[in-house]
Amino acid sequence: MSQEPVSYLELLARGAAVEAYDRPVLLARASGAGPEALAELERAKQLALRVRAELEGRRRREAELSALFETAHDLAGLRDLDAVLRAIVQRARSLLGTEVAYLSLNDPAAGDTYMRVTEGSVSAHFQQLRLGMGEGLGGLVAQTALPYVTENYFDDARFQHTRTIDSAVGDEGLVAILGVPLTLGSQVIGVLFAADRRARVFGREQVALLGSFAAHAAVAIDTANLLAETRSALAELERANDIIREHSGVIERASEVHDRLTELVLRGGGVHDVADAVSEVLGGRVEFIEQGHGPGHGPGPARLADGHALREGDTWVAAVAAGGECLGALVLHGQPDLDPVDQRTLERAALVTSLLLLARRSAGEAEQRVRGELLDDLLDAPDRDRRLLRERAARLRTDVDAPHVVLAARIDRAGAAGETDGGGRESADRQRLWSAASHLAATRQGLASARDGGTVLLLPLGSGEDAAELARQTAKHLGGALREPVTVGASSPVPSPLAAPDKVASAYEEARRCLDALRLLHRSGEGAAAEDLGFLGLLLADTRDIEGFVDRTIGQVVAYDRRRGTDLVRTMDAYFASGMSPARTKEDLHVHVNTVAQRVERIGRLLGPDWQSPARALEIQLALRLHAMSAAVAR
Question: What is the per-residue DSSP string for 466-484?
Protein backbone atom coordinates (compact mmCIF):
# COMPACT_ATOMS: atom_id res chain seq x y z
CA MET A 1 0.00 0.00 0.00
CA SER A 2 2.91 2.37 0.52
CA GLN A 3 3.43 2.49 -3.26
CA GLU A 4 -0.10 3.78 -4.06
CA PRO A 5 0.69 7.51 -3.61
CA VAL A 6 3.33 7.03 -6.33
CA SER A 7 0.48 6.05 -8.69
CA TYR A 8 -1.14 9.40 -8.16
CA LEU A 9 2.15 11.17 -8.84
CA GLU A 10 2.41 9.23 -12.09
CA LEU A 11 -1.15 10.27 -13.00
CA LEU A 12 -0.26 13.90 -12.31
CA ALA A 13 2.97 13.63 -14.29
CA ARG A 14 1.27 12.36 -17.43
CA GLY A 15 -1.78 14.62 -17.10
CA ALA A 16 -4.29 11.81 -16.80
CA ALA A 17 -8.05 12.41 -17.00
CA VAL A 18 -10.07 12.82 -13.81
CA GLU A 19 -11.62 9.36 -14.17
CA ALA A 20 -8.18 7.71 -13.94
CA TYR A 21 -7.80 8.86 -10.33
CA ASP A 22 -10.49 6.42 -9.20
CA ARG A 23 -8.48 3.40 -10.40
CA PRO A 24 -6.06 3.04 -7.39
CA VAL A 25 -9.00 3.06 -4.98
CA LEU A 26 -10.95 0.53 -7.04
CA LEU A 27 -7.92 -1.76 -7.27
CA ALA A 28 -7.32 -1.54 -3.54
CA ARG A 29 -10.95 -2.29 -2.79
CA ALA A 30 -10.89 -5.23 -5.18
CA SER A 31 -7.79 -6.59 -3.47
CA GLY A 32 -9.57 -6.52 -0.09
CA ALA A 33 -7.84 -3.51 1.47
CA GLY A 34 -9.14 -2.46 4.90
CA PRO A 35 -11.19 0.65 5.65
CA GLU A 36 -8.18 2.59 6.94
CA ALA A 37 -6.15 1.88 3.84
CA LEU A 38 -9.08 2.80 1.60
CA ALA A 39 -9.61 6.03 3.56
CA GLU A 40 -5.93 6.87 3.19
CA LEU A 41 -6.11 6.25 -0.56
CA GLU A 42 -9.24 8.39 -0.82
CA ARG A 43 -7.44 11.25 0.94
CA ALA A 44 -4.49 10.86 -1.41
CA LYS A 45 -6.86 10.88 -4.37
CA GLN A 46 -8.57 14.09 -3.24
CA LEU A 47 -5.20 15.76 -2.67
CA ALA A 48 -4.01 14.68 -6.14
CA LEU A 49 -7.22 16.02 -7.71
CA ARG A 50 -6.70 19.36 -5.95
CA VAL A 51 -3.14 19.52 -7.24
CA ARG A 52 -4.39 18.64 -10.74
CA ALA A 53 -7.02 21.39 -10.58
CA GLU A 54 -4.39 23.88 -9.42
CA LEU A 55 -2.07 22.89 -12.30
CA GLU A 56 -4.93 23.18 -14.79
CA GLY A 57 -5.81 26.61 -13.42
CA ARG A 58 -2.22 27.78 -13.74
CA ARG A 59 -1.92 26.50 -17.28
CA ARG A 60 -5.14 28.27 -18.17
CA ARG A 61 -3.94 31.48 -16.52
CA GLU A 62 -0.63 31.27 -18.42
CA ALA A 63 -2.53 30.94 -21.69
CA GLU A 64 -4.72 33.92 -20.77
CA LEU A 65 -1.74 36.07 -19.79
CA SER A 66 0.08 35.08 -22.98
CA ALA A 67 -2.93 36.13 -25.07
CA LEU A 68 -3.22 39.43 -23.19
CA PHE A 69 0.52 40.03 -23.67
CA GLU A 70 0.21 39.37 -27.39
CA THR A 71 -2.73 41.77 -27.53
CA ALA A 72 -0.72 44.44 -25.71
CA HIS A 73 2.12 43.82 -28.18
CA ASP A 74 -0.30 44.35 -31.08
CA LEU A 75 -1.43 47.62 -29.54
CA ALA A 76 2.16 48.81 -29.13
CA GLY A 77 2.68 48.48 -32.87
CA LEU A 78 -0.81 49.63 -33.85
CA ARG A 79 -1.06 50.16 -37.58
CA ASP A 80 -4.43 48.76 -38.61
CA LEU A 81 -7.25 49.12 -36.07
CA ASP A 82 -9.38 46.44 -37.77
CA ALA A 83 -6.51 43.93 -37.57
CA VAL A 84 -6.00 44.58 -33.85
CA LEU A 85 -9.72 44.27 -33.08
CA ARG A 86 -9.93 41.10 -35.15
CA ALA A 87 -7.01 39.60 -33.21
CA ILE A 88 -8.69 40.49 -29.91
CA VAL A 89 -11.96 38.84 -30.95
CA GLN A 90 -10.15 35.74 -32.24
CA ARG A 91 -8.20 35.31 -29.00
CA ALA A 92 -11.30 35.86 -26.88
CA ARG A 93 -13.14 33.17 -28.83
CA SER A 94 -10.22 30.74 -28.56
CA LEU A 95 -9.58 31.19 -24.84
CA LEU A 96 -13.24 31.10 -23.81
CA GLY A 97 -13.83 28.12 -26.10
CA THR A 98 -16.93 29.63 -27.68
CA GLU A 99 -18.27 29.05 -31.16
CA VAL A 100 -18.74 32.74 -31.93
CA ALA A 101 -17.21 36.03 -30.74
CA TYR A 102 -18.05 39.49 -32.02
CA LEU A 103 -17.62 43.18 -31.25
CA SER A 104 -20.10 45.99 -31.80
CA LEU A 105 -19.49 49.74 -31.73
CA ASN A 106 -21.86 52.62 -31.09
CA ASP A 107 -22.52 55.06 -33.94
CA PRO A 108 -23.43 58.38 -32.27
CA ALA A 109 -24.18 60.01 -35.62
CA ALA A 110 -26.73 57.36 -36.63
CA GLY A 111 -27.94 56.82 -33.08
CA ASP A 112 -27.53 53.06 -33.24
CA THR A 113 -25.01 50.24 -32.86
CA TYR A 114 -23.39 48.10 -35.56
CA MET A 115 -21.25 44.97 -35.89
CA ARG A 116 -17.57 45.87 -36.32
CA VAL A 117 -15.81 42.46 -36.09
CA THR A 118 -17.21 38.90 -36.01
CA GLU A 119 -15.43 35.58 -35.62
CA GLY A 120 -17.14 32.22 -36.18
CA SER A 121 -20.30 33.81 -37.57
CA VAL A 122 -21.98 32.13 -40.55
CA SER A 123 -25.01 34.39 -41.02
CA ALA A 124 -24.65 37.41 -43.33
CA HIS A 125 -27.79 38.86 -41.72
CA PHE A 126 -26.15 38.69 -38.28
CA GLN A 127 -22.83 40.14 -39.53
CA GLN A 128 -24.57 43.21 -41.01
CA LEU A 129 -26.91 43.77 -38.05
CA ARG A 130 -27.58 47.32 -36.84
CA LEU A 131 -29.75 47.82 -33.78
CA GLY A 132 -31.12 50.75 -31.88
CA MET A 133 -29.67 51.92 -28.57
CA GLY A 134 -31.07 50.05 -25.55
CA GLU A 135 -32.21 47.03 -27.56
CA GLY A 136 -31.15 43.44 -26.92
CA LEU A 137 -28.48 42.14 -24.55
CA GLY A 138 -25.93 44.57 -25.99
CA GLY A 139 -28.25 47.47 -25.25
CA LEU A 140 -28.52 46.35 -21.61
CA VAL A 141 -24.71 46.17 -21.33
CA ALA A 142 -24.34 49.61 -22.93
CA GLN A 143 -26.94 51.15 -20.61
CA THR A 144 -25.51 49.74 -17.36
CA ALA A 145 -21.79 49.57 -18.30
CA LEU A 146 -21.80 46.14 -16.64
CA PRO A 147 -21.21 42.64 -18.01
CA TYR A 148 -24.33 40.52 -18.64
CA VAL A 149 -24.62 36.82 -19.38
CA THR A 150 -27.58 34.72 -20.46
CA GLU A 151 -27.71 30.96 -20.60
CA ASN A 152 -30.63 31.05 -23.04
CA TYR A 153 -31.11 34.25 -25.00
CA PHE A 154 -34.68 33.67 -26.10
CA ASP A 155 -35.90 32.76 -22.59
CA ASP A 156 -34.27 35.79 -20.92
CA ALA A 157 -36.68 38.65 -20.16
CA ARG A 158 -34.17 41.03 -18.57
CA PHE A 159 -33.60 42.94 -21.79
CA GLN A 160 -35.73 44.28 -24.64
CA HIS A 161 -36.31 41.74 -27.40
CA THR A 162 -37.00 43.02 -30.91
CA ARG A 163 -37.99 41.15 -34.04
CA THR A 164 -34.86 42.34 -35.90
CA ILE A 165 -32.41 41.25 -33.22
CA ASP A 166 -34.16 37.97 -32.42
CA SER A 167 -34.29 37.11 -36.11
CA ALA A 168 -30.55 37.74 -36.55
CA VAL A 169 -29.67 35.79 -33.39
CA GLY A 170 -31.93 32.96 -34.54
CA ASP A 171 -30.28 32.91 -37.98
CA GLU A 172 -26.90 32.55 -36.28
CA GLY A 173 -28.31 29.89 -33.92
CA LEU A 174 -26.93 31.56 -30.76
CA VAL A 175 -28.23 30.46 -27.35
CA ALA A 176 -25.78 31.42 -24.57
CA ILE A 177 -24.32 34.94 -24.82
CA LEU A 178 -21.87 36.89 -22.65
CA GLY A 179 -21.41 40.62 -23.26
CA VAL A 180 -18.96 43.04 -21.59
CA PRO A 181 -18.77 46.81 -22.16
CA LEU A 182 -16.06 48.67 -24.06
CA THR A 183 -15.56 51.79 -21.96
CA LEU A 184 -13.51 54.95 -22.32
CA GLY A 185 -13.69 56.66 -18.96
CA SER A 186 -17.35 56.55 -18.03
CA GLN A 187 -18.56 56.29 -21.65
CA VAL A 188 -19.61 52.99 -23.21
CA ILE A 189 -18.48 52.93 -26.84
CA GLY A 190 -19.41 49.35 -27.70
CA VAL A 191 -19.73 45.76 -26.48
CA LEU A 192 -17.54 42.65 -26.80
CA PHE A 193 -19.46 39.35 -26.97
CA ALA A 194 -18.73 35.63 -26.68
CA ALA A 195 -21.52 33.21 -27.59
CA ASP A 196 -22.35 29.53 -28.06
CA ARG A 197 -25.03 27.76 -30.05
CA ARG A 198 -25.98 25.74 -27.00
CA ALA A 199 -26.92 26.50 -23.40
CA ARG A 200 -23.83 27.29 -21.35
CA VAL A 201 -22.89 28.87 -18.01
CA PHE A 202 -20.06 31.40 -18.19
CA GLY A 203 -17.95 31.49 -15.00
CA ARG A 204 -16.62 34.55 -13.19
CA GLU A 205 -13.09 33.96 -14.56
CA GLN A 206 -14.40 33.91 -18.13
CA VAL A 207 -16.33 37.16 -17.55
CA ALA A 208 -13.16 38.78 -16.17
CA LEU A 209 -11.07 37.48 -19.08
CA LEU A 210 -13.47 38.83 -21.70
CA GLY A 211 -13.49 42.12 -19.77
CA SER A 212 -9.67 42.27 -20.09
CA PHE A 213 -9.93 41.83 -23.84
CA ALA A 214 -12.62 44.52 -23.93
CA ALA A 215 -10.28 46.89 -22.10
CA HIS A 216 -7.60 46.23 -24.74
CA ALA A 217 -10.11 46.82 -27.52
CA ALA A 218 -11.16 50.13 -25.94
CA VAL A 219 -7.51 51.18 -25.69
CA ALA A 220 -6.98 50.28 -29.35
CA ILE A 221 -9.98 52.35 -30.41
CA ASP A 222 -8.93 55.25 -28.18
CA THR A 223 -5.37 55.09 -29.52
CA ALA A 224 -6.61 55.07 -33.11
CA ASN A 225 -8.86 58.06 -32.38
CA LEU A 226 -5.99 59.92 -30.72
CA LEU A 227 -3.77 59.17 -33.73
CA ALA A 228 -6.50 60.47 -36.01
CA GLU A 229 -6.85 63.59 -33.88
CA THR A 230 -3.09 64.04 -33.92
CA ARG A 231 -2.99 63.67 -37.69
CA SER A 232 -5.86 66.13 -37.95
CA ALA A 233 -4.03 68.53 -35.65
CA LEU A 234 -0.88 68.22 -37.73
CA ALA A 235 -2.92 68.79 -40.88
CA GLU A 236 -4.39 71.90 -39.30
CA LEU A 237 -0.91 73.12 -38.44
CA GLU A 238 0.14 72.59 -42.03
CA ARG A 239 -2.84 74.59 -43.28
CA ALA A 240 -1.93 77.31 -40.81
CA ASN A 241 1.56 77.35 -42.32
CA ASP A 242 0.04 77.81 -45.81
CA ILE A 243 -1.85 80.85 -44.54
CA ILE A 244 1.30 82.19 -42.90
CA ARG A 245 3.22 81.93 -46.16
CA GLU A 246 0.62 84.19 -47.76
CA HIS A 247 1.34 86.93 -45.21
CA SER A 248 4.97 87.93 -45.61
CA GLY A 249 4.89 90.29 -42.64
CA VAL A 250 4.23 87.46 -40.16
CA ILE A 251 6.03 84.52 -41.75
CA GLU A 252 9.01 84.71 -39.40
CA ARG A 253 6.85 84.92 -36.26
CA ALA A 254 4.62 82.07 -37.41
CA SER A 255 7.62 79.88 -38.27
CA GLU A 256 9.17 80.65 -34.94
CA VAL A 257 6.08 79.71 -32.96
CA HIS A 258 5.64 76.51 -34.98
CA ASP A 259 9.27 75.50 -34.42
CA ARG A 260 9.19 76.35 -30.75
CA LEU A 261 5.96 74.49 -30.08
CA THR A 262 7.25 71.44 -31.93
CA GLU A 263 10.48 71.58 -29.94
CA LEU A 264 8.51 71.92 -26.73
CA VAL A 265 6.44 68.85 -27.53
CA LEU A 266 9.48 66.79 -28.52
CA ARG A 267 11.47 67.62 -25.39
CA GLY A 268 8.49 67.05 -23.12
CA GLY A 269 7.68 70.65 -22.34
CA GLY A 270 4.64 71.64 -20.33
CA VAL A 271 1.57 73.81 -20.79
CA HIS A 272 3.18 76.89 -19.24
CA ASP A 273 6.21 76.51 -21.54
CA VAL A 274 3.79 76.78 -24.48
CA ALA A 275 2.25 79.93 -22.98
CA ASP A 276 5.70 81.52 -22.50
CA ALA A 277 6.73 80.72 -26.06
CA VAL A 278 3.55 82.18 -27.56
CA SER A 279 3.93 85.28 -25.35
CA GLU A 280 7.31 86.06 -26.93
CA VAL A 281 6.06 85.47 -30.47
CA LEU A 282 2.83 87.49 -30.19
CA GLY A 283 4.34 90.28 -28.08
CA GLY A 284 1.82 90.01 -25.26
CA ARG A 285 1.34 88.00 -22.08
CA VAL A 286 -0.27 84.58 -22.53
CA GLU A 287 -1.50 82.57 -19.56
CA PHE A 288 -3.18 79.20 -19.32
CA ILE A 289 -6.30 79.07 -17.12
CA GLU A 290 -7.73 75.69 -16.18
CA GLN A 291 -11.45 75.12 -16.54
CA GLY A 292 -13.22 76.40 -13.44
CA HIS A 293 -10.22 78.50 -12.28
CA GLY A 294 -9.96 82.24 -12.60
CA PRO A 295 -12.90 84.61 -12.99
CA GLY A 296 -13.99 85.94 -16.33
CA HIS A 297 -11.94 83.62 -18.57
CA GLY A 298 -14.15 80.67 -19.20
CA PRO A 299 -16.12 80.87 -22.47
CA GLY A 300 -19.22 78.71 -22.43
CA PRO A 301 -19.30 75.44 -24.36
CA ALA A 302 -21.55 76.86 -27.06
CA ARG A 303 -19.06 79.65 -27.84
CA LEU A 304 -16.17 77.19 -28.04
CA ALA A 305 -17.83 74.91 -30.55
CA ASP A 306 -16.08 76.41 -33.62
CA GLY A 307 -12.59 76.31 -32.05
CA HIS A 308 -11.76 79.93 -32.93
CA ALA A 309 -10.07 82.48 -30.67
CA LEU A 310 -12.58 84.98 -29.28
CA ARG A 311 -12.02 88.59 -28.32
CA GLU A 312 -13.28 89.58 -24.89
CA GLY A 313 -12.58 93.25 -24.21
CA ASP A 314 -8.83 93.80 -24.48
CA THR A 315 -8.01 90.10 -24.32
CA TRP A 316 -8.17 87.14 -26.69
CA VAL A 317 -9.29 83.72 -25.47
CA ALA A 318 -8.61 80.40 -27.23
CA ALA A 319 -10.28 77.31 -25.82
CA VAL A 320 -8.17 74.30 -24.86
CA ALA A 321 -10.57 71.44 -25.57
CA ALA A 322 -10.53 67.80 -26.62
CA GLY A 323 -13.34 65.41 -27.43
CA GLY A 324 -15.99 67.98 -26.52
CA GLU A 325 -14.44 68.51 -23.07
CA CYS A 326 -13.21 71.99 -22.18
CA LEU A 327 -9.89 71.68 -20.34
CA GLY A 328 -9.23 75.41 -19.99
CA ALA A 329 -8.18 78.36 -22.13
CA LEU A 330 -5.15 80.32 -23.35
CA VAL A 331 -5.69 84.02 -22.61
CA LEU A 332 -3.64 86.70 -24.42
CA HIS A 333 -3.28 90.08 -22.67
CA GLY A 334 -1.84 93.28 -24.10
CA GLN A 335 -2.65 92.72 -27.79
CA PRO A 336 -6.25 93.79 -28.42
CA ASP A 337 -5.74 93.88 -32.21
CA LEU A 338 -4.65 90.59 -33.75
CA ASP A 339 -4.49 89.85 -37.45
CA PRO A 340 -6.03 86.54 -38.64
CA VAL A 341 -2.66 84.78 -38.78
CA ASP A 342 -1.81 85.64 -35.18
CA GLN A 343 -5.29 84.51 -34.17
CA ARG A 344 -4.56 81.18 -35.81
CA THR A 345 -1.22 81.06 -33.98
CA LEU A 346 -3.04 81.42 -30.68
CA GLU A 347 -5.54 78.76 -31.75
CA ARG A 348 -2.74 76.37 -32.77
CA ALA A 349 -1.06 76.92 -29.41
CA ALA A 350 -4.35 76.05 -27.73
CA LEU A 351 -4.55 72.86 -29.80
CA VAL A 352 -0.97 71.87 -28.85
CA THR A 353 -1.83 72.63 -25.24
CA SER A 354 -4.82 70.29 -25.41
CA LEU A 355 -2.60 67.53 -26.85
CA LEU A 356 -0.06 68.03 -24.06
CA LEU A 357 -2.81 67.85 -21.45
CA LEU A 358 -4.24 64.68 -23.01
CA ALA A 359 -0.77 63.14 -23.17
CA ARG A 360 -0.16 64.01 -19.52
CA ARG A 361 -3.53 62.54 -18.57
CA SER A 362 -2.88 59.37 -20.59
CA ALA A 363 0.57 58.99 -19.06
CA GLY A 364 -0.88 59.40 -15.57
CA GLU A 365 -3.59 56.83 -16.25
CA ALA A 366 -1.04 54.42 -17.73
CA GLU A 367 1.20 54.76 -14.66
CA GLN A 368 -1.80 54.14 -12.41
CA ARG A 369 -2.62 50.96 -14.34
CA VAL A 370 1.01 49.78 -14.19
CA ARG A 371 1.17 50.38 -10.44
CA GLY A 372 -2.08 48.45 -10.03
CA GLU A 373 -0.82 45.55 -12.16
CA LEU A 374 2.41 45.27 -10.14
CA LEU A 375 0.46 45.20 -6.87
CA ASP A 376 -1.96 42.63 -8.33
CA ASP A 377 1.01 40.43 -9.21
CA LEU A 378 2.40 40.72 -5.67
CA LEU A 379 -1.02 39.73 -4.31
CA ASP A 380 -2.02 37.05 -6.81
CA ALA A 381 1.24 35.68 -8.19
CA PRO A 382 3.92 35.83 -5.47
CA ASP A 383 5.93 33.12 -7.24
CA ARG A 384 6.67 35.27 -10.28
CA ASP A 385 10.26 36.08 -11.25
CA ARG A 386 11.49 38.44 -8.53
CA ARG A 387 14.06 40.01 -10.84
CA LEU A 388 11.30 41.11 -13.20
CA LEU A 389 9.20 42.37 -10.28
CA ARG A 390 12.18 44.39 -9.03
CA GLU A 391 12.77 45.90 -12.48
CA ARG A 392 9.12 46.91 -12.77
CA ALA A 393 9.19 48.44 -9.28
CA ALA A 394 12.38 50.35 -10.11
CA ARG A 395 10.73 51.90 -13.17
CA LEU A 396 7.97 53.14 -10.86
CA ARG A 397 10.55 54.39 -8.32
CA THR A 398 9.12 52.02 -5.71
CA ASP A 399 11.57 50.49 -3.22
CA VAL A 400 9.99 47.07 -2.60
CA ASP A 401 12.88 46.08 -0.31
CA ALA A 402 11.91 48.68 2.31
CA PRO A 403 9.25 48.10 5.00
CA HIS A 404 5.73 48.60 3.64
CA VAL A 405 2.20 48.47 4.97
CA VAL A 406 -0.78 47.06 3.10
CA LEU A 407 -3.93 49.19 3.47
CA ALA A 408 -7.51 48.34 2.48
CA ALA A 409 -9.71 51.38 1.82
CA ARG A 410 -13.41 51.75 1.10
CA ILE A 411 -15.83 54.67 0.78
CA ASP A 412 -18.39 54.74 3.60
CA ARG A 413 -20.90 57.21 2.27
CA ALA A 414 -23.78 58.12 4.58
CA GLY A 415 -26.92 56.31 3.47
CA ALA A 416 -25.09 54.16 0.93
CA ALA A 417 -26.87 51.04 2.08
CA GLY A 418 -30.26 52.48 1.26
CA GLU A 419 -29.52 53.82 -2.19
CA THR A 420 -31.37 52.44 -5.15
CA ASP A 421 -29.08 53.32 -8.05
CA GLY A 422 -27.31 49.97 -7.66
CA GLY A 423 -24.00 49.12 -9.22
CA GLY A 424 -23.68 52.40 -11.15
CA ARG A 425 -23.07 54.52 -8.06
CA GLU A 426 -20.91 51.83 -6.47
CA SER A 427 -18.81 51.58 -9.62
CA ALA A 428 -18.39 55.35 -9.72
CA ASP A 429 -17.36 55.36 -6.05
CA ARG A 430 -14.80 52.64 -6.67
CA GLN A 431 -13.39 54.53 -9.67
CA ARG A 432 -13.09 57.78 -7.70
CA LEU A 433 -11.46 56.00 -4.77
CA TRP A 434 -9.02 54.17 -7.04
CA SER A 435 -8.07 57.43 -8.78
CA ALA A 436 -7.40 59.22 -5.47
CA ALA A 437 -5.53 56.23 -4.04
CA SER A 438 -3.40 55.91 -7.19
CA HIS A 439 -2.42 59.57 -6.93
CA LEU A 440 -1.49 59.09 -3.27
CA ALA A 441 0.51 55.96 -4.11
CA ALA A 442 2.40 57.80 -6.86
CA THR A 443 3.31 60.71 -4.55
CA ARG A 444 4.47 58.30 -1.82
CA GLN A 445 6.23 55.96 -4.29
CA GLY A 446 3.89 53.11 -3.44
CA LEU A 447 1.35 51.00 -5.32
CA ALA A 448 -2.46 50.96 -5.54
CA SER A 449 -5.07 48.72 -7.16
CA ALA A 450 -8.87 48.42 -7.24
CA ARG A 451 -9.91 45.23 -5.47
CA ASP A 452 -12.89 43.61 -3.70
CA GLY A 453 -15.19 46.61 -4.04
CA GLY A 454 -12.58 49.02 -2.67
CA THR A 455 -8.90 49.84 -3.08
CA VAL A 456 -5.73 48.24 -1.76
CA LEU A 457 -2.52 50.25 -1.29
CA LEU A 458 1.05 49.20 -0.58
CA LEU A 459 2.79 52.22 0.95
CA PRO A 460 6.30 52.54 2.41
CA LEU A 461 6.69 53.38 6.08
CA GLY A 462 8.27 56.76 6.67
CA SER A 463 10.90 57.46 9.29
CA GLY A 464 9.35 57.17 12.76
CA GLU A 465 6.00 56.22 11.24
CA ASP A 466 3.95 53.18 12.27
CA ALA A 467 1.12 51.32 10.56
CA ALA A 468 -1.62 52.91 12.68
CA GLU A 469 -0.45 56.45 11.93
CA LEU A 470 -0.11 55.65 8.22
CA ALA A 471 -3.70 54.30 8.21
CA ARG A 472 -5.01 57.46 9.88
CA GLN A 473 -3.13 59.71 7.45
CA THR A 474 -4.38 57.71 4.47
CA ALA A 475 -8.01 57.85 5.65
CA LYS A 476 -7.72 61.60 6.19
CA HIS A 477 -6.07 62.20 2.81
CA LEU A 478 -8.49 60.08 0.78
CA GLY A 479 -11.52 61.39 2.66
CA GLY A 480 -10.40 64.97 2.02
CA ALA A 481 -9.76 64.31 -1.65
CA LEU A 482 -13.17 62.68 -2.19
CA ARG A 483 -15.05 64.79 0.37
CA GLU A 484 -16.59 61.61 1.71
CA PRO A 485 -15.65 59.32 4.62
CA VAL A 486 -13.06 56.73 3.62
CA THR A 487 -12.34 53.92 6.07
CA VAL A 488 -8.84 52.43 6.00
CA GLY A 489 -7.58 49.24 7.63
CA ALA A 490 -3.84 48.59 7.81
CA SER A 491 -1.78 45.45 8.22
CA SER A 492 1.29 44.97 10.32
CA PRO A 493 4.44 46.15 8.48
CA VAL A 494 5.81 43.84 5.81
CA PRO A 495 9.62 44.13 6.20
CA SER A 496 10.38 43.54 2.53
CA PRO A 497 7.50 42.83 0.08
CA LEU A 498 9.88 41.50 -2.56
CA ALA A 499 11.81 39.25 -0.18
CA ALA A 500 8.56 37.54 0.87
CA PRO A 501 5.86 38.30 -1.75
CA ASP A 502 3.50 35.74 -0.23
CA LYS A 503 3.28 37.89 2.89
CA VAL A 504 1.73 40.73 0.89
CA ALA A 505 -1.43 38.68 0.27
CA SER A 506 -1.73 37.67 3.93
CA ALA A 507 -1.11 41.28 4.96
CA TYR A 508 -3.94 42.36 2.64
CA GLU A 509 -6.31 39.90 4.31
CA GLU A 510 -5.26 41.32 7.69
CA ALA A 511 -5.93 44.85 6.44
CA ARG A 512 -9.38 43.82 5.17
CA ARG A 513 -10.22 42.25 8.53
CA CYS A 514 -9.20 45.48 10.23
CA LEU A 515 -11.37 47.46 7.77
CA ASP A 516 -14.37 45.25 8.50
CA ALA A 517 -13.76 45.61 12.24
CA LEU A 518 -13.77 49.41 11.98
CA ARG A 519 -17.04 49.39 10.09
CA LEU A 520 -18.65 47.02 12.59
CA LEU A 521 -17.50 49.35 15.38
CA HIS A 522 -19.29 52.24 13.61
CA ARG A 523 -15.96 54.01 13.09
CA SER A 524 -16.40 54.73 9.40
CA GLY A 525 -14.04 57.34 8.02
CA GLU A 526 -11.24 56.36 10.40
CA GLY A 527 -7.98 54.53 9.89
CA ALA A 528 -6.45 51.92 12.19
CA ALA A 529 -3.93 49.10 12.14
CA ALA A 530 -4.86 45.50 12.76
CA GLU A 531 -2.95 45.39 16.03
CA ASP A 532 -5.15 48.18 17.41
CA LEU A 533 -8.22 45.92 17.47
CA GLY A 534 -9.14 42.57 18.95
CA PHE A 535 -12.29 40.51 19.33
CA LEU A 536 -13.00 41.99 22.76
CA GLY A 537 -12.64 45.49 21.36
CA LEU A 538 -14.86 44.50 18.41
CA LEU A 539 -17.63 43.52 20.84
CA LEU A 540 -17.24 46.13 23.56
CA ALA A 541 -16.21 49.36 21.82
CA ASP A 542 -18.97 51.87 20.96
CA THR A 543 -22.07 49.62 21.16
CA ARG A 544 -21.21 47.46 24.24
CA ASP A 545 -23.98 45.14 23.05
CA ILE A 546 -22.79 41.88 24.62
CA GLU A 547 -26.29 40.48 25.12
CA GLY A 548 -27.21 41.31 21.54
CA PHE A 549 -24.06 39.60 20.23
CA VAL A 550 -24.75 36.48 22.30
CA ASP A 551 -28.38 36.43 21.22
CA ARG A 552 -27.52 36.80 17.53
CA THR A 553 -24.84 34.11 17.75
CA ILE A 554 -26.29 31.36 19.99
CA GLY A 555 -29.66 32.80 21.04
CA GLN A 556 -31.66 30.08 19.27
CA VAL A 557 -29.77 27.37 21.14
CA VAL A 558 -30.16 29.13 24.51
CA ALA A 559 -33.88 29.61 23.86
CA TYR A 560 -34.26 25.96 22.84
CA ASP A 561 -32.60 24.80 26.08
CA ARG A 562 -34.86 27.12 28.04
CA ARG A 563 -38.02 25.84 26.35
CA ARG A 564 -37.19 22.13 26.20
CA GLY A 565 -34.97 21.73 29.25
CA THR A 566 -32.18 20.34 27.04
CA ASP A 567 -28.43 20.78 27.47
CA LEU A 568 -27.31 21.96 24.05
CA VAL A 569 -25.27 24.96 25.30
CA ARG A 570 -23.14 22.78 27.58
CA THR A 571 -22.83 20.24 24.76
CA MET A 572 -21.44 22.94 22.42
CA ASP A 573 -18.98 24.07 25.09
CA ALA A 574 -17.75 20.51 25.67
CA TYR A 575 -17.69 19.81 21.92
CA PHE A 576 -15.36 22.73 21.20
CA ALA A 577 -13.26 22.02 24.31
CA SER A 578 -12.67 18.46 23.07
CA GLY A 579 -11.49 19.62 19.65
CA MET A 580 -14.91 18.86 18.09
CA SER A 581 -14.47 15.15 18.81
CA PRO A 582 -17.79 13.38 19.52
CA ALA A 583 -15.95 10.54 21.30
CA ARG A 584 -14.20 12.84 23.79
CA THR A 585 -17.33 14.96 24.15
CA LYS A 586 -19.42 11.98 25.29
CA GLU A 587 -16.79 11.14 27.93
CA ASP A 588 -16.86 14.70 29.23
CA LEU A 589 -20.69 14.74 29.37
CA HIS A 590 -21.08 11.09 30.48
CA VAL A 591 -23.57 10.35 27.72
CA HIS A 592 -23.67 7.92 24.80
CA VAL A 593 -21.90 9.02 21.59
CA ASN A 594 -25.23 8.76 19.72
CA THR A 595 -26.65 11.34 22.14
CA VAL A 596 -23.77 13.67 21.26
CA ALA A 597 -24.40 13.11 17.54
CA GLN A 598 -28.11 13.90 17.95
CA ARG A 599 -27.35 17.07 19.89
CA VAL A 600 -24.77 18.21 17.31
CA GLU A 601 -27.32 17.61 14.55
CA ARG A 602 -29.92 19.63 16.48
CA ILE A 603 -27.42 22.48 16.97
CA GLY A 604 -26.71 22.47 13.22
CA ARG A 605 -30.43 22.82 12.46
CA LEU A 606 -30.68 25.75 14.86
CA LEU A 607 -27.51 27.61 13.87
CA GLY A 608 -27.12 26.57 10.24
CA PRO A 609 -24.89 24.03 8.51
CA ASP A 610 -21.75 26.22 8.66
CA TRP A 611 -21.70 26.59 12.45
CA GLN A 612 -18.50 24.51 12.69
CA SER A 613 -16.62 26.57 10.08
CA PRO A 614 -13.58 28.39 11.55
CA ALA A 615 -15.11 31.88 11.44
CA ARG A 616 -18.48 30.82 12.89
CA ALA A 617 -16.85 28.51 15.46
CA LEU A 618 -14.70 31.35 16.77
CA GLU A 619 -17.72 33.63 17.19
CA ILE A 620 -19.74 30.85 18.83
CA GLN A 621 -16.98 30.02 21.31
CA LEU A 622 -16.65 33.69 22.25
CA ALA A 623 -20.43 33.93 22.65
CA LEU A 624 -20.36 30.81 24.89
CA ARG A 625 -17.71 32.43 27.13
CA LEU A 626 -19.65 35.69 27.37
CA HIS A 627 -22.86 33.79 28.05
CA ALA A 628 -21.16 31.87 30.87
CA MET A 629 -19.71 35.10 32.30
CA SER A 630 -23.08 36.86 32.23
CA ALA A 631 -24.73 33.85 33.90
CA ALA A 632 -22.08 33.86 36.63
CA VAL A 633 -22.54 37.59 37.24
CA ALA A 634 -26.32 37.14 37.40
CA ARG A 635 -25.92 34.51 40.13
Answer: -HHHHHHHHHHHHHHHHTS
